[in-house]
Design brief:
alpha+beta; FAD/NAD(P)-binding domain; 8-stranded mixed β-sheet; globular
Length: 491
Amino acid sequence: MATLPTGRQSLRPPIRRARRPHSHDVIVVGAGPSGSVLAWELARQGVDVLVLDGAAFPRDKVCGDYLEPRGLRVLARMGCLEAVERDAPLPISRSATFVNGRRLYHGRIPFYSVRTDLPACGYIIPRRTLDDLLLQTAARAGATVQQESYVTAVRNSARGVEVEVRQGRSRRVVRAALVAGADGVNSVVARSAGLLVSDPRYVAVAQRAYAEGVEKDDGEAAFFFDVDLFPGYGWAFPMAGGRVNLGVGILAETRDRLGIRVPDLFRTFLGRLRRAHPRFRKLQLCRPPIGGIVKTYGGAGPNHFAGGLLVGDAGSFVDPMTGEGISPAMESSLLAARTLRRALDAGRFDRPTLAAYEREFRAYFDPAMAFLDLVAATLRNGHMKDWWLSAFSRGCRQAQRDQALARVTGACFGGVELDPRAVLWQLLGRTCADVGAFASDLIACQVGWWRSLAADPVWHASWAMDVQKKWLRVLSILGTAGGDPRAVGVL
């Protein structure tokens, strides 16, 4: 494990308490990782923070539970990593990739060793445990926490931001200078601000379950790419004690266009998992699977409005390729804390003042996320799946022999440092080195293209224009980007 900074850093003086019409400086709606990290960061700087959440903690949450090295870095900064490791979680340092039931890559995760200042593994931490730990840490830092407090509406007034709260049969209004929406994909804060994302191109639907009966705890995360899961994948993330977090995810647009039922995908996947993977032959579900959705970064809007900001899932801070959202959620909150603190210092809570948040999160996330969004947009076209799965299969076989290729291109699937230019150069080099494979891929791509055009010309034209737009966006970033800021983290 790499040595990471822990505990308190130098803190700014607390906000001066002038006479004011509101009760708090900031109300954070939602106590998941994004809400708790934001509350912790603000509270330790002397900001008066109120956290509201409708649930009673600890509570479960639909998630892959995977916390990769960048997320562990945030836990270390909060002083939480030691508490996590006391429970002896199984280190995830290996991965296996299956395509249509065949294992084409396995070994150590190659891109976890590119930075010595980050852990070389990840952990599967059930959200029931993680979220409770983070919320308690925020409370110890000075945040006021109110559970089982359902936020029903948010509005601006002459006396600040007003938040309507329901607790049991009682209703009340609490006020603050600012509000932060950390209340997930169906965010009341986002809806009240007119910023709720509903575009099915950026919504992934999933089912997840815990199971037991894994025959060997070797810290190998398994990923499954199959025709019936396109564009999406299945996963099996091992935990200590022979347990595993497993699930499937697919794009909502594809589900709706093809009439797919996600529970059917999960059942098929579970059966295939038992047959294809020797460690999972005796899997038994601990309880029935549960479903959830995520909204990916491609759909992220400005995420700021007069009187507040959106963080985490509420702001679509989710990896477009993997659907991983815990680490980017926490990072978005650390960025948001800067903007909120500056606004409080200046006593200005208008939209132009809070627009600094969008500039900062774009500068931080776009160098990597815009490229991932482009790749995800390309995969939206189901008629291209034969081409993509064929090319991906060949890439996995080559990566098994070539760790440099695995490290660079594999970073598109959860790498801690993504360099789009290096990925494109690797792909170009491989293409030039194998003209026969390139010709085969080109034919398959063209066949898929014309099938898509013939099946639905309007949708096809919209998809092609979307991909072109994202290419232009990526090219503009490649001309100015100086690396992946997420590798360094929010300083």
